[in-house]
Amino acid sequence: VSAFLRELAARQTDPANRRWLFVPYDQLNDAMGPLCREEPGTLLVETPWKGNRRPYHRQKLAMLLANQRHFALEQAERGVAVRLAVGKGPYREVLTRVVKELGPLRVMVPAERELRVDLEPLFERKQLELIPHEGWLTTAEDFAQSQNGPPWRMDAFYRHVRKRTGALMTNGKPLGGKFSFDVENRKGWKGQPPAPALPIFCPDAVTSEVLELIETHFADHPGQLKPDELPSTRADATALWEWAKAQCLPRFGPFEDAMSTRSRSLFHTRISALLNLHRLLPRQILDDVLAMTLPLASQEGFVRQVLGWREYLHHVHVETDGFRTLAPEASTPGDGGFEAWRGKAWKAPRAAFEPGGGAEPSALQAHAPVPPAYWGAPSGLHCLDTVIAELWQSGYGHHITRLMVLANLGTLLGLSPRALTDWFWAAYVDAYDWVVEPNVLAMGTFGTGGIATTKPYVAGAAYIDRMSDYCAGCAFDPQKNCPITRLYWAFLARHEAMLRANPRTGPAVLGLNRRSASERARDQVILAHVLERLQAGAVLSPEQLP
Ligand SMILES: Cc1cc2nc3c(=O)[nH]c(=O)nc-3n(C[C@H](O)[C@H](O)[C@H](O)COP(=O)(O)OP(=O)(O)OC[C@H]3O[C@@H](n4cnc5c(N)ncnc54)[C@H](O)[C@@H]3O)c2cc1C
Ligand code: SF4
């Protein structure tokens, strides 16, 4: 018998006369919903079905399962009856069996659309009652009241929720006289102040068992398991947040956009995976940060991420039905180029029920597949190779590496926004449809046009060099022969008319006027060369540039 099942059995309380609550994998907190005010029975489900739908990073699978198992034990420990339903197929199959025995269940509205769609037959048969999800900080009304769109804008949403909640407000005015201190938060990082050492987590018997299980049953999946970066118990979650408050938040703002080979996360908090599983509650995080004495630029910068961006993008996902209102849906989940990189078939076992693979908007008409470099094949671009190596080691990377290295290069190369989204979804420990789709389809690639963000976030080597130390270790020179700068110019030329009409990007396009015809032609040649080499899994070098 497994250590987990033994521990669970040892803690079980009488399950009779309980009203059962289905707790999905990402609602693992007893300070919200029925668990904080009743004594319901808690139903948890284990099935490899979801894990097999995409080539998820092994660390992500371990993070989810280890946290769910520890949550089960913690609930049993405090006297809550816990029932574990195990199956192989989709959640609908497992739950249909369970309701025959336990009767109708309740569930807080799942954050993931994929799970909502999976559970639909049970909602229709009234076997599963939907109750509000109490983990969000804002409501659909907040979104509706703050917007005239589409297009929608995060700034308007953020100002509205700041005013409505009173967060960082004084006498109806924003603290410090403005809503955003973004312009103060763009410092590069040269090694000072020192970045905090990462917190270390020690797997117990239950987590170790999960790690073994993932190694055995998901051996085909990419990514390394990193036990010391795997918070899994409630105490681990608290320790991570205490570390973030003490070590990261006081300097969060100024270095928010910096990147470095010497620190993977700089002053970022690394809480997203636990926040998205609700091991940490957004409400608790926000209240703690508002109660702290912090430099205002850091405090506001962090509040904007959690109360602003995270909530706003979730509303956009709900409002567009995961962007299906904009574009048709792929029939099956994409693998983000995994199979092509691996060179042999990677096939998830097909279940009777398969929800589709997500919307495929591509406002910039970008359709190229994700090249092997994103899966770990060396590219010769030191910025890309550094971020990718770190990612496959742990499943984590901070915002600017995602936006200004990975998504930037993807956009410049014309990668399909859907394919890149599937790649992000598989690669990152914190990726779930409601958060990864808006971040990649809308913010990262501008695949949805201007519906939710103002402009494509693209840059050449000058930006990467200014904000990181990657270029110092690169065979290319950011001022002379870096192909990313050529790709940037080629992108501006490709979308000149659209960018010229956008007040946020118009000035950048003016530079094209000063670019000679021969330089423009060379930009295209380099773009074709880079695309061809990267798609072939080959390394780029200055000597081989055409
Ligand atoms: C292309 C791209 C893909 C992304 N994919 C994901 C994803 O799959 N899952 C995910 O949680 N975040 C995603 N993000 C947002 C952001 O990069 C991560 O939330 C952040 O890097 C997590 O690290 P952290 O906890 O150290 O964040 P910190 O920098 O410490 O920020 C604190 C918290 O703010 C929230 N936050 C900040 N920005 C965003 C945002 N744009 N969207 C949602 N929440 C935000 C997160 O919960 C984060 O934990 C993506 C961003 C980009 C540009
Ligand atoms: S020189 Fe170019 S490819 Fe090399 S690290 Fe800098 S931006 Fe990246």
**In this structure, how is the largest beta sheet organized?**
3 strands, parallel
| H/E topology pattern | HEEHEHEHEHHEEHHHHHEHEHHHHHHHHH
* Rg measurement, Å: 24 Å
Shape label: globular
Contiguous uncertain segments of 5+ residues: none
Helix/strand-derived class? mainly alpha
Helix-strand blueprint:
Elements: H1 3-11, E1 20-22, E2 41-46, H2 58-77, E3 82-86, H3 91-102, E4 105-108, H4 113-124, E5 128-131, H5 140-146, H6 154-165, E6 169-170, E7 173-174, H7 205-217, H8 234-248, H9 272-276, H10 282-291, H11 296-319, E8 329-330, H12 338-342, E9 358-359, H13 382-394, H14 399-413, H15 417-427, H16 433-444, H17 461-467, H18 483-494, H19 496-500, H20 506-513, H21 517-535
Parallel strand pairs: 1-2, 2-3, 4-5
Antiparallel strand pairs: 6-7, 8-9
Helix pairs in contact: 1-2, 2-7, 3-4, 5-6, 6-11, 10-11, 11-16, 14-18, 15-16, 18-21
The structure holds flavin-adenine dinucleotide and iron/sulfur cluster.
Flavin-adenine dinucleotide (FAD) binds at residues 265, 268-272, 275-276, 305-306, 309-310, 313, 398-399, 402-403, 407, 424, 428, 430-431, 435-436, 439-440, 443-444.
